[in-house]
Amino acid sequence: MSTPEDSTKRQGLVKKLVQLRLKLQELKDEPEVEDHENKKVLGHLFALTNNGKTQPSKCDVCANSMWSRLRPIYLCKECGFSCHLKCIDIVKRHCVAVKLARKAAYEMSICPEVGLASQKYRCADCKIAISFKGDSGEPRQCDYTGLYYCQTCHWNDVQVIPARVVHNWDFSPRKICRQSKQLLDLMMNRVVINLSDLNPGLFNRVEALTNIKKLREDILVMKKYFISCKYAKEARLLRMLEDRPHFVEGSVHYTVRDLMETQEDLLFDSIKETHKRYSQHIRIECDLCRAKGFICELCRAEELIFPFDIIAIACSQCSAVFHRDCFFKKNGVCPKCERLAKQLAITGVSFDESSPT
């Protein structure tokens, strides 16, 4: 006679066996499709794939499991949307990559909720009727869009929300719908966040951002040396930032990945190493770049200084470089600018001392 424990275990095994048999029958019922067949639906570029995963993924149409190890599935090459073969003809969600091709920008309002009534009590994605009083499951809100979705279109995926990062420096993952998940994944490395426009005060509140901004500003100065230096070109120094080309174009644009790595104390160390390598080339290794160094006109010390040195400061008008302490002892008055002003008053012509004669 079996014990209660044996009966419970047996019931579980029987239930699992029934599920596997149903799945096998479902696979047999699916239509045969040639491996080379591709489909274009609502902007998606679907291709058959078999990724060999031992664990099932979920279909973006019906939210049921997909065993791609056993049966090929359709996967969008652009956004990662995936579905069963049998679901390909009932796809309702447009490809988010098409939307980004038109305008790549984040929603910068924090969870801009409008209410379920304004959605006419329908899922914001598939438009199926939803209600907090219904039997089909409670609607789920997406923290990125602020809209409500059915449980087929919202799987409780979590992600860092760009608006919360920019406005509150908040990296807590929030629940988002499938459409937002695909969009945010695609946007992770897009250079679309201008902190100077969106929240310039963040540079004062977050020390890591302040330090990184200073390093980036220095790198922009160093770039001018490298552009005219054949040795820097041969060494491909600017290629050290090829995974972040926006770092040699400006100092205020970021990707979400940049900001996340700033929060994790990873970005500063990485950029600091690049900064150190660049400085070493200009100050020590390269005679061409060293020749462009400055002697502080205020103290006449023999050491060369450069505009990216911590101890140095460049005049905002003429770009002459001085020791920071010397410059402020003179109340921020640039002697080169004074001379140029006197020349202008006497001759009526402005001379640039840095120009070749």
From TrEMBL:
Q: Which residues form the signal peptide?
A: none
Q: Which InterPro entries match?
A: C1-like_sf (IPR046349), DEF8 (IPR051366), PKC_DAG/PE (IPR002219), RH_dom (IPR025258)
Bilayer-spanning residue ranges? none
**Which superkingdom is the protein from?**
Eukaryota
Could you list this entry's UniProt keywords, alphabetically sorted. Metal-binding, Repeat, Zinc, Zinc-finger
Q: Which Pfam families match?
A: C1_1, RH_dom
Entry's Gene Ontology molecular function annotations: zinc ion binding
Q: Report if keyword Zinc-finger is assigned.
A: yes
Per UniProt, residues of the Phorbol-ester/DAG-type domain are 43-95
**The family this protein is said to belong to:** Belongs to the DEF8 family.
Which protein, by its recorded name, is this?
Putative differentially expressed in FDCP 8-like
> What species does this protein belong to?
Stichopus japonicus (Sea cucumber)
